[in-house]
Amino acid sequence: MNYKKLELEDINYIQSIIKDNERILMGENINEEYSHDELSDTISYPDLVVKVKSPEEVSSILKYAYENTIPVTPRGSGTGLVGASVAIEHGIMLDTSLMNHFLELDEDNLTITVEPGVLLMELAAYVEERGLFYPPDPGEKSATIGGNISTNAGGMRAVKYGVTRDYVRGLEVVLPNGKIVEFGGKVVKNSTGYAMKDLMVGSEGTLGIITKATLKILPLPKKAISLLIPFPSLEQAIGTVPLIIKSKAIPTAIEFMQREVIMDAEKYLGKKFPDNSADAYLLLKFDGNSTEEIEKDYENVAQICIEQGAIDILVSDTTEREDSIWKARGAFLEAIKGSTSFMDEVDVVVPRSSVNEMVEYIHGLYKEVNIRIKSFGHAGDGNLHAYILKDELSEEEWEEKVKAAMDKIYGKARELSGQVSGEHGIGYAKKSYLMKALDPATVEIMRGIKLAFDPKNILNPHKVCQL
Fold it and tell me: CA 232 → CA 268, 273, 323, 361, 362, distances in Å?
């Protein structure tokens, strides 16, 4: 597309919409953080940042941008990892972080309606104070709900409860041409035409901008217990996961981690992990309405782990112990990031029955490629996070080795009938791997959907499947 470069007349129009000009950033007033996301080395500044506060503001700006073929990039907290919120074509960036209000708690229908800028940790605290529960639990608690929906974020509780898509009942969306539409609603079942709401979930800001979300909530489980289980080796730990799944016990979470990542987290947080003596660990969580109910599940799983060579079963049955373990787990990404000069990540997902083979493959890959790779992940749902570390490599060595490592990891995932991303999305950084993973006919259908929503391709161009 031949996009229009922002001119004074365009800025004047936007200023006429946004009466509070402090919410409009230009030139040197655009913070460096707006040029990238949390991890991607894709850097590109928008020409203008607008901190929007209402659907009407979003609508007016998009309508004008569409009529004048000006690119628009939506952004929440900027915690993404694949460059999805980077303004590749510059233009206008719409920051939705000020749209952060709780609009309605409907306890009769067990739904909560929020604006997209509400943070995950704010939502979790709000409902839990009222004895309710929003299950999706991605590691980055400062991410916005709009961002979680745009990437279909998963998190650690997906084993039992599912992912963000499973909790989105309805969406208010501003289309690229400025029209405000509603998809879905408060109904539990819906076979009324195409699943437009589900199409928006995971679309990474390429089809429309979410301005309101109605989310399913649950009663808060009364009790939770975690098991931290040390193993002599990674192979024994990860090899136990398929047996746990096959046992038909349903943990809330099944995470795996290695000692070196735990040590990074200890250094980053300045606090000791409950145990760091073993090479590898499984971290399992069970929840329910009573200790007796939970014990029926975890005792069987604990026995499986002991039979597979677990060194011990460390039971965490107090709030303090729970918090210390899961806070450390939540810090893994930042801890690894702090241990190297730069890193890139792989967010592959494979069938749960193949998770042990995939983990062992990644673990052995550093010898073949001669680059440090650290990994952890949601072993219970097959979603693995591998972080390739630059350390002291030159730019030339880094580019060569990171590409070799990624090619091999994504290739192995394809071999195991896996997919490119489990929860972080494709964005800008992972497009080439998506193209290798999907049938060309599927990619053309995706591009056709984008064209139907956004014929002028103004909204978040060059993301997901776009050239």
Answer: 25, 17, 25, 18, 18
Domain that holds residue 81: 8-98
pLDDT 10s digits, 184-207: 999 999 999 999 999 999 999 999
Q: 230 has which bridge partners?
A: 281
* 290-347 pLDDT, tens digit each: 888 898 889 999 999 999 999 999 998 777 778 788 888 889 999 999 999 999 999 9
Cα–Cα distance measured from residue 184 to residue 182, given in angstroms and rounded to the nearest whole number: 7
Same domain membership, residue 326 and residue 385? no
CB atoms within 10 A of CB 348: 26
| List of residues 6+ apart from 457 with CB closer than 8 A | 1, 450, 451, 466
Residue 85 lies in a domain: yes
Q: Pick the closest to residue 386 from 368, 366, 367 (CA basis).
A: 366
For residue 205, being part of any structural domain is answered with: yes
Decide if 209 is inside a domain: yes
pLDDT band at 230 (very low <50, low <70, confident <90, very high): very high
Q: How many domains does the chain have?
A: 4
Q: Tokens at residue 81, please? A: 């990892």
Q: pTM above 0.70?
A: yes
C-alpha triplet 420, 400, 407: angle, nearest 5°: 25
